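Inputs:
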Amino acid sequence: MNETGLRELSQKLIGTEIKAELLRLFHMNPGILDTVESIARRIGRMPKDVETEISTLVELGVLRKERFGKLDVLSLNTSKDKEVQKKLAALIEESAKG
Amino acid sequence: MRVSTGISALDAMLHGGLMRGDVTLVVGSAGTGKTTLALQYLVNGATKFNENGLYITFEQMPAQIYRDAASFGWDIRKLEAEGKLRVVCTSPPVLVQFVEERNPIDAIISEMSAKRIVIDSISNLESFIPASELRGELYRLVNHLKMKELTSIFTAESQEVFGDHLVVTGVGLSFLVDCIILLRIVEIQSSLKKALTVLKIRGSDHDKQLREFEITPQGIKIAAAFAQYEGVLTGAPRRSTTEAFTEAFKKGKKI
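Outputs:
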């Protein structure tokens, strides 16, 4: 664990304004179970602007993507989200210790 | 078998509660208390009758529902943590997928052994599903919930705040559901009051009176019937002939 680890994880997690908005949306509303189009609408953005950011959060495991019929449905993976938050907190603590 | 809403006066109007496995439509214009009634049904189910419930919202975000429910003393987050209630925020295309083979909402229903479900509001489906397919999709949704033995409440927004006619949806939703509860704002002696009536229950008798209700800090409280007035549902009630006659009689006036 080091500065680079902290930078990389925080960059992946909240490196852009849209990612921060998405995380805030899901943390405040953990019951969201929705499509990219609707999620974009819920944060006042266009789907094309959130697709990449959502993919990064899916790669990190914070968001879960499941295929149902014709739709990709996204939801918060609460256990993985807690794990990532714990990891981030540990990195911050380690970094603060110098 | 009846399912208690936990609102005793409403249960009495329904002659014991909703019929298990039925779909009830709660219709009213904005601000009449549809969401409060629906949430109260689920909270009472979870806290008083050991029946877990699922609340599906489209436009209103869960954070707002948690906040609004807290003003009635209902701790939805706590009930969610206990696995008794879940608030799912989704969009109509996802809900309609749930009538196909696999669906995330079906999985939640099984996972939490839900007995009650609220869909708030069914009117949102009209914006996402072509008019030609809407009735068929609603019919499939109603039957899907019945197969799962859920006792359901759908809320629906009526456009008319006042007036003498009521259109719920253009697709005949009122024929697909088993029970209809109508909420309306009425003007009585220059003040706005809330009125509730049961329009129909399939296979059962029910109270046919129009009753006043209030949204109190504890939720919906139903009061007495508007016995002294006629034409309350039109929004322009008048004193009933008997009342007017009695009053005129007391005052010695001609009517």
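Remarks. Chain B touches chain A through 19 residues (CB under 8 Å). The two ends of chain B are 49 Å apart (CA to CA).
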